[in-house]
UniProtKB/TrEMBL annotation:
It is an enzyme of class 4 (lyase). Its EC number is 4.2.1.1. Keywords: Lyase, Metal-binding, Zinc. The lineage of its organism: Bacteria, Pseudomonadati, Pseudomonadota, Gammaproteobacteria, Alteromonadales. It comes from Shewanella psychropiezotolerans. SMART domains: Pro_CA. This is Carbonic anhydrase. Pfam families: Pro_CA. Its cofactor is Zn(2+). SUPFAM superfamilies: beta-carbonic anhydrase, cab. It comes from the Bacteria. CDD domains: beta_CA_cladeA (cd00883). It catalyses: hydrogencarbonate + H(+) = CO2 + H2O.
């Protein structure tokens, strides 16, 4: 008996349903991927990228980690970003956080958690930078706002990478967006921090 047989059963039902709806779907999918979108999101199992924006496989390139962070020493994330921008030529990069993020919540506490403390330190830096604003809020408001501020900070991090800067310098059409998702109602909100090549001004010697 196969281990995790229910998951294989689910897979077969899913594949059969897709073929019924679009008989040549997998044949076309196998030939290439040509997504216009890169989703940088949280690993939280409640925040599945394709389902949230109702896109099929092949329509969105995805990178997920704890608390949807873009850190300049994270070669995994940067490799995904480079491939998406330089090879797939995506037009939109969405940094997508969510309210109730466990990583953000953990960063607000004082308990030592082990290896992940090194990762969460980046969110604690965001908390410190915005402490004047955050300290005026109650705990739930502070939690929600820090989830938003984390997304905004990561939009800045994406935009300042040499990958995106070089793309803008050569005139490539790519925009960076900051969104946040509510697990309670299933809806996305735009944090209105979009950056694109129209705003990029290369330095002139």
């Amino acid at each position: 008996m196969k281990i995790l047989k229910p998951l294989f059963d689910n897979n077969r039902r899913w594949a059969e349903r897709i073929v019924q709806e679009k008989p040549d779907f997998f044949e076309q999918l196998a030939k290439q991927q040509n997504p216009e979108y890169l989703w940088i999101g949280c690993s939280d199992s409640r925040v599945p990228s394709n389902q949230i924006i109702d896109l099929m496989p092949g329509e969105v390139f995805v990178h997920r980690n704890i608390a949807n962070m873009v850190i300049h020493t994270d070669l995994n994330c940067l490799s995904v970003l480079q491939y998406a921008v330089e090879v797939l030529k995506v037009k939109h990069i969405m940094v997508v956080g969510h309210y109730g993020c466990g990583g953000v919540k953990a960063s607000m506490g004082k308990q030592r958690l082990g290896l992940i403390d090194n990762w969460l330190g980046h969110i604690r830096d965001i908390h410190r930078l915005h402490s004047e604003e955050l300290n005026k809020l109650d705990e739930q408001e502070k939690f929600d706002r820090l989830c938003e501020l984390n997304v905004i900070e990561q939009v800045g991090n994406v935009s300042s990478t040499n990958i995106v800067q070089d793309a803008w310098e050569r005139g490539q059409n790519v925009s960076v967006h900051g969104w946040i998702y509510s697990v309670e109602n299933g809806l996305l909100s735009d944090l209105d921090v979009t950056v694109d090549n129209e705003q990029y001004k290369p330095e002139i010697d």
